[in-house]
Design goal:
Helices cover 37% and strands 29% of the residues. With 185 residues, it is an alpha+beta fold. The protein has one domain. Helix 1 packs across helix 2. Strands 1, 2, 3, 4, 5, 6 and 7 form a seven-stranded mixed sheet that branches.
Length: 185
């Protein structure tokens, strides 16, 4: 199964998170949701494709992947990965980070970190940054996503398309979109 299938599932998870959060909050966008809520919805969407873990320790994931562990521990090496999908034989497959795209360079640090981890080899070959953004003007969404791809060096591989919603506080129409950025070593 290709990475595109996993990216599509990630986007379905974000759309489900938006719909559910918007409904039970009476109209708030995902900008007001805790990241863990969105991670959970993405994990649910990924679970028919592979085993999924949330908040996996970086060092343990590298170990399980059979990656190079000698040398300087990657920055945030003692941190966690938002989502990890697993091969059937029990090794990590895709490393996934979830990010609110509040500003144009929001994913740059995550893409760099994923590149460092993937560069250590092992069973993981690619990473995905799943970003979501909302704005009143659709053009603002395009600008943020395109600049995020350019500044991070990640490939903007899939998008949901802009989805309109009524913003809770103002009653005006806003738009949100989720996108996947593919990261390679």
């Amino acid at each position: 199964m290709s990475i595109a299938n996993f990216e599509a599932a990630c986007l379905r998870g974000v759309k489900r998170a938006f719909k559910t959060h918007h409904q039970f909050t009476g109209g708030l966008s995902l900008q007001y949701a805790p990241e863990a809520f969105i991670q959970g919805q993405i994990a649910l969407a990924l679970s028919p494709l592979a085993y999924v873990t949330l908040e996996s320790h970086v060092y343990d994931t590298l170990w399980d992947a059979g990656a190079e562990l000698r040398g300087k521990v990657p920055r945030n090496g003692s941190g966690r990965l938002d989502i990890v999908t697993w091969w059937k034989q029990g090794t990590p497959r895709f490393l996934i980070e979830v990010k609110k795209l509040r500003h144009k360079e929001a994913i740059t640090a995550d893409a760099k970190r994923l590149r460092q981890l993937l560069g250590r080899g092992g069973s993981t070959r690619e990473g995905i940054v799943v970003a979501y953004v909302s704005a009143k003007k659709p053009r603002t969404i395009d600008d943020r996503l395109l600049y995020a791809a350019e500044s991070s060096g990640a490939l903007l591989s899939q998008r949901t398309g802009k989805i309109p919603f009524v913003e809770f506080h103002s009653g005006s129409t806003w738009h949100y979109e989720a996108a996947c950025f593919r990261v390679r070593p």
